[in-house]
Amino acid sequence: MARDVMSVRLWLPLVRVLGVAADLPERLVVRVASTVGHPKCPHCSAPSGRVHDRRDNKVRDLEVSGRPVTLVWERRRMVCEPCGRRFCEDHPAFEGRLTARLARRVVADARAMTVNAAARRHRLGWDLVNSLVVAWAGLVADRRRRRRCRLLLVEETSIRKRHRYVTVLVNGDTGEVLAMVPHRSQAALTAFLAAQGHRWCRGVKVVVSDGSAAYKAAISAKLGHARHVLDRFHVIRWFQSGLTAVRRDVQRRPEGSKPRFDPDVFRARFLLMRRPDTLDAAERERLDAVFAAHPRLKAAWDALGELHGLYLAKNRKGALEALDRFADIYGTGQIPEFSDVVDTFLAWHEQILGWHQAGQPSNGPIEGTNNLLQVLRRKAHGSANYTNLEARGILTT
Ligand SMILES: [Zn+2]
């Protein structure tokens, strides 16, 4: 017994153990008081030594040898002599109904598991644990947002499957979520950047986003000095849409035939999307067989390969050469389905080719964060509210 009570005392600075109220196998209750002689008045900052009365505050602490520990803090109500007002003393070891060290442990556990699991482990309510997590995430986010961010990643994600969108902002150098703001509009991103302030914005050298016109407008208004680069995966998806359009046309068979689609072409649809340099010999052979029957599909596939080359190139010069080769294929008129791709490229060429000059930023961190958010959302059964989602995003990055 003495040892457990002693550990309470040793663990908590500025706390004196008054006695043991209950020492049972299933719980330990210890009465404690502050050793601070003259707490400061919150109204006038004068130290006060006049005690008006004392009230018991129950504070949960870390378990000792598997036993839940409750501290009964004899909290003093002081009278401030200079200003005459009464106030309840504060104590650095206590945060509301928990000791500061228990609160820290709960947050650490919630990071590794879910809020639910952390609540169960510490026998605390979900609301209490969640509010600790949200408060902690707020402090962390504040600190992250004050630091300089050289590479800013902007991406939208949906909460509640496609019904509501949030804009996720990530420091691309550290992979840390800086904020998640509601909506995916120009106003949403502009408001975030305005709140970050002019100095912070000036520190951003590269910003990576998807091909949203709303983001583009906000970025050119607030981060006009930075290099705006399009997220590589989004661009590749655009490029792939050209090949998909050609493939759909090629695989179609005349009315009335069965099956309606050429099964060989249809079955090759995923293989077609793979980057040429990642195919093995057998996969290449399968594709060649399909191409022998459908030269237009081969042309489309070659065209997409050159567009991949924009990113495989070592530098801007190499990218422009790949683009030249793409233009040669497109110029033959065999693959008019790529006209949308060409239009999109022309509208965004600066942000696409800028990837090389921006040091070829990886969008890995934000993709990773997005995957993580999907997992979090599933864990929350699709009903994650936005504040909790942001807290979890910050907590886990
Ligand atoms: Zn006072």
Question: Could you characterize what this model shows?
Answer:
50% of the residues lie in helices and 21% in strands. It is α/β, with parallel strands linked by helices and 397 residues long. The chain folds into 4 domains: 2-96, no CATH class; 103-146, no CATH class; 147-231 and 363-395, Nucleotidyltransferase, domain 5 (2-Layer Sandwich); 232-357. The strands form 3 sheets. Strands 1, 2, 3, 4 and 5 form a 5-stranded mixed sheet that branches. Strands 10-9-8-11-12 form a 5-stranded mixed sheet, with helices on both faces. A two-stranded antiparallel sheet has the order 6-7. Helix 7 (213-222) links the parallel strand 11 and strand 12 (227-230). The longest helix is centred in the middle third of the chain and has 21 residues, at 126-146. It is elongated and about 90 Å long. The model has no long low-confidence stretch (mean pLDDT 87). The structure holds zinc ion. Zinc ion binds next to loops.
Summarize the structure.
The chain has 397 residues and is an alpha/beta fold. It contains 16 helices and twelve strands.
Number of beta-strand segments? 12
The tally of domains stands at: 4
Biggest sheet details: 5 strands, mixed
- Class inferred from helices and paired strands: alpha/beta
